[in-house]
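Researcher: I need the complex structure. Ligand is zinc ion. Inputs:
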Amino acid sequence: MEMNTNQVEAIVKKVLESLSNGSAPAASSAGSKAIPKTAKVAMLTALEKVEIKEYPMPEVGDDDILVRVEGCGICGTDAHEYKRDPFGLIPVALGHEGTGEIVKMGKNVKVDSAGKAVALGDKIVTCMIFKDNPDITMFDLNKQNVGGADVYGLLPDDDVHLNGWFADYILIRKGSTFFNVSDLDLDSRILIEPCAVLIHAVERAKTTGILRFNSRVVVQGCGPIGLICIAILKTMGINNIIAVDGNAGRLEFAKRLGASDSLNFKDYNGIEAMAGACAQKFDGHLADFAFQCTGSPVGHANIYKFIRNGGGLCELGFFINGGDATINPHFDICAKEITTVGSWVYTLRDYATTFDFLKSAKAIGLPINELITDKYPLSQINEAYKKNLAMTGLKIAVIPD
Ligand SMILES: [Zn+2]
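Model: Output:
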């Protein structure tokens, strides 16, 4: 049987209509799939309880973007919300490490926050939301970090409900910053948000003037944050990196991501012995610079012992209040004249730098996508949280069914 193009189109249209419960795709939509009438949102409705709710697909205003979600990573912040709701957001649609495809957008949406053109079918990520200053772009805001703004995935629920990336659709509204990242593969796009945290930390570290091309660097803590830190340092051409952790598998992965050597704290009796072993590995020298990437107060107290006189420290392990740490200000900071910087979240500019980092890391063969160890369908998001809390994987991603 032969068919002309019109007949083929008619059949395709019929199939699409049946897929979308009888409704024809909206006129201004595009992409391989028709937009359904309802969206599925993973709503945290009580502690450790996520329910998949269905909401009507919202109207897309002149400044809005409707995105079909392709995936979103679980962040430590999501896990804290799931366990304890420290921000008091329940009921809340979580998920801020997400990415997806533009399936519908308002007539006023022409470019992303870097000024790059966007079209239906483009892949995007979101950054901060500036409700009071919707015209802001990355060029205006190099210094303010995300601590002063909202992000999708940590918003109170409202009548739209499509506020987090743990969903199959999300509505991006006026005042949001977003980037066209169509040139990155899905796994890289899921890793953008956590990588931006480390791009920011390394930029903070560079302000000390101590982190240089041939620096000896210690990275303490080899969860996703420490591992990404190592990959960024390697991409910058820093070749003397010692990874510190208590998990042999993570230390092996740290080496594949650019660490030149590793120290397992379970092999040493106390911090003095471990600092001595570190110096041995650095040809008799302590570290010029250290990144503290654990959320442990003992980890903070210990990190100074790895650092040489006149060295530097970036502390980025405490995204939330992890308690007090005890240090000796004389020996740890004053007598050694240590320069310290703190780092928390990121700026818009760091997001743009992150896209280049991900491409550079791949170009030199770092297995950065292997940071995503597990993928769960949206319908099994409770299991995904449990896997995250068990800490037996690295980055856990949730993918719409
Ligand atoms: Zn996060």
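Model: Summary of the prediction. Residues 9-183+367-399 form a domain with the Quinone Oxidoreductase; Chain A, domain 1 fold (CATH 3.90.180.10).
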